[in-house]
Amino acid sequence: MIPPIQPIYADNDENLWNEFVNDFAQAFVDTAAAEQAYVDLSKLEMKGDEIDKYIATFEHLLARAGWD
User: What domain count does the chain have?
Assistant: First the structure.
């Protein structure tokens, strides 16, 4: 009889869940993220005096679109 294999991680081990999240994110990539970011960029408008929010959103969308 083969002895049972001991688990590498405990169920509540943070490293287990971090590894799971990373593996999941790599396996299921949004193939339309760049296109959606471009659409969102084309609709982006500054509302009121929220310049910081506008700039942060703009830079985030640029990165998602893969632009410099």
Answer: 1
